[in-house]
């Protein structure tokens, strides 16, 4: 049975940790899905895989193009697509239009969006009422890089209380899950204990209900990784070695045999 948003909530109740990773095309999605990943996110961090410095330049059409490819590789995992910068913040109508396009055109089951200010809470509630499952994202929100930088968030008591309140408000608005990015471990634990919906951490410590990482970091494809990522294999080196071996064999006329 494919994973659903409700399943993630049941897993939290059962204390089963949720595994989430990002994907940007069919091949990566197929590998992640077959390996048992619970949630596959077509994250706007894909902008970096496409050569951008930040997540801001990626467009809704680009997200949809890649999400369609990911969809073809996903059989079991819950598939979530990020709404990119300024495709949902302008108005409720814009958010509904963008999220609707994502679900209709890609076959994803849910969208993710960043922030928790009052208009965004209203947007989350209205999307959910319209039948669009929403994953929320607080703490370090990369679409606000020009305001927040890439620094850890929630370090002062005031900031920590604000993020806790935001998480609770997003749950109330109807989000089925929430990404906690780059916040202190004790704050993530507090939020995780207070919420009924699962928290998915990235740079938020071990107490979240699940963990997400950017796949290009996990497999060592990215040129550089954030401090909280873990590199499990070095695909840059593996690819470079394969290319060098191929080049030698072509130049020495050893391939094809
Ligand atoms: O875009 C992305 O990859 C994300 C993760 C960092 C959660 O939002």
TrEMBL record:
Subcellular location field: Cytoplasm
GO process terms (BP): pantothenate biosynthetic process
Keyword Transferase (UniProt): yes
Keyword Cytoplasm: yes
Similarity comment text for this entry: Belongs to the PanB family.
Co-factor requirement: Mg(2+)
TM stretches of this protein: none
Pfam families per the UniProt record, alphabetical: Pantoate_transf
Reaction(s) catalysed (UniProt annotation): (6R)-5,10-methylene-5,6,7,8-tetrahydrofolate + 3-methyl-2-oxobutanoate + H2O = 2-dehydropantoate + (6S)-5,6,7,8-tetrahydrofolate
Cofactor, free-text remark: Binds 1 Mg(2+) ion per subunit.
Pathway of action: Cofactor biosynthesis; (R)-pantothenate biosynthesis; (R)-pantoate from 3-methyl-2-oxobutanoate: step 1/2
Descriptive protein name: 3-methyl-2-oxobutanoate hydroxymethyltransferase
Subunit structure as annotated in this protein's UniProt entry: Homodecamer; pentamer of dimers.
Binding locations of Mg(2+): 44, 82, 114
Enzyme class: transferase
Primary subcellular site in the record, as a coarse category: cytoplasm
One of the record's GO molecular function terms: 3-methyl-2-oxobutanoate hydroxymethyltransferase activity
UniProt-annotated catalytic positions: 181
EC number: 2.1.2.11
Cellular component per GO, a single term: cytoplasm
Keywords: Cytoplasm, Magnesium, Metal-binding, Pantothenate biosynthesis, Transferase
Role according to the record: Catalyzes the reversible reaction in which hydroxymethyl group from 5,10-methylenetetrahydrofolate is transferred onto alpha-ketoisovalerate to form ketopantoate.
SUPFAM superfamilies per the UniProt record, alphabetical: Phosphoenolpyruvate/pyruvate domain
């Amino acid at each position: 049975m494919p994973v659903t948003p409700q399943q993630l909530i049941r897993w939290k109740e059962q204390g089963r940790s949720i595994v989430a990773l990002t994907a940007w095309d069919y091949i990566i999605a197929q590998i992640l899905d077959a390996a048992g990943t619970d949630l596959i996110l077509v994250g706007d961090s894909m902008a970096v895989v496409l050569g951008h410095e930040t997540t801001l330049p990626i467009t809704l059409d680009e997200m949809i193009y890649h999400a369609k490819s990911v969809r073809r590789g996903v059989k079991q995992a819950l598939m979530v697509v990020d709404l990119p910068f300024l495709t949902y913040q302008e108005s409720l109508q814009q958010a509904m239009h963008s999220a609707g396009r994502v679900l209709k055109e890609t076959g994803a089951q849910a969208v993710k969006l960043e922030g928790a200010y009052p208009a965004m809470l209203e947007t989350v509630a209205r999307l959910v009422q319209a039948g669009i499952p929403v994953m929320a994202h607080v703490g370090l929100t990369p679409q606000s890089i020009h305001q927040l930088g890439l620094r850890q968030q929630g370090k002062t008591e005031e900031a920590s209380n604000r993020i806790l309140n935001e998480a609770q408000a997003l749950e109330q608005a109807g989000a089925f899950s929430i990404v906690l990015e780059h916040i202190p471990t004790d704050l993530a634990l507090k939020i995780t204990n207070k919420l009924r919906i699962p928290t998915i951490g990235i740079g938020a410590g071990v107490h979240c209900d699940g963990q997400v990482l950017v796949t290009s970091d996990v497999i060592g494809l990215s040129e550089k990784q954030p401090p909280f990522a873990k590199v499990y294999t070095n695909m840059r080196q593996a690819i470079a070695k394969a290319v060098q071996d191929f080049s030698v064999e072509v130049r020495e006329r050893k391939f094809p045999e």
